[in-house]
Amino acid sequence: MQDAGPGAAGGKVVAADLGLRSLRGVRVPRGAAELDASGNRLRDVSGLGAAAAAGLRTLVLDGNELEDLRGLPQLDALETLWLNKNCVADLDALLDVVAARAPRVRYLSLLGNPACRHALVGSSDVEIARYRRKVLRRLPGLRFLDAAPVAPVGAAPAEGSIAKTVRRLLKAVGAALSA
Fold this sequence. Notes:
It is a single chain. With 179 residues, the chain is an alpha/beta fold. 26% of the residues lie in helices and 11% in strands. A seven-stranded mixed β-sheet has the order 1-2-3-4-5-6-7, with no helix packed on it. A hairpin with a 2-residue loop joins β6 (144-145) and β7 (148-149).
């Protein structure tokens, strides 16, 4: 069994950058609020124990090899889910699992996945708007998607405004660096 060791203090379990292929050996004590299993080689999350993980509010799985979340236990308390830099290509399948298994998610980040549409990877304003609408229809309680705030229902920002802002910032940074 992988003991989270000093990283477990304060309700946080750190099992990051250990080359793990499974969560089966990671001890998540009851009452833990956060699990960081980023930077491993995980292909599934089926090893996450349902009883111990039930109280998790944050799950960080960045930088793994996840294509989906099959095997995710019921996480009714989960509010933050980070899946950046994985291999998620089927957005619909992922949203099905998140909606069913983590219905209270408020913060979701999928940056660096094939399914994610974002200005940083060259997606068009139309692609970004379509992607965000799809995610928000399935997860209406989200407050942040891919590090950008979600507008309240009925007050959606103009299509592409986030992408335009990011592009302006990137252009300004580029100009500053070349000066």
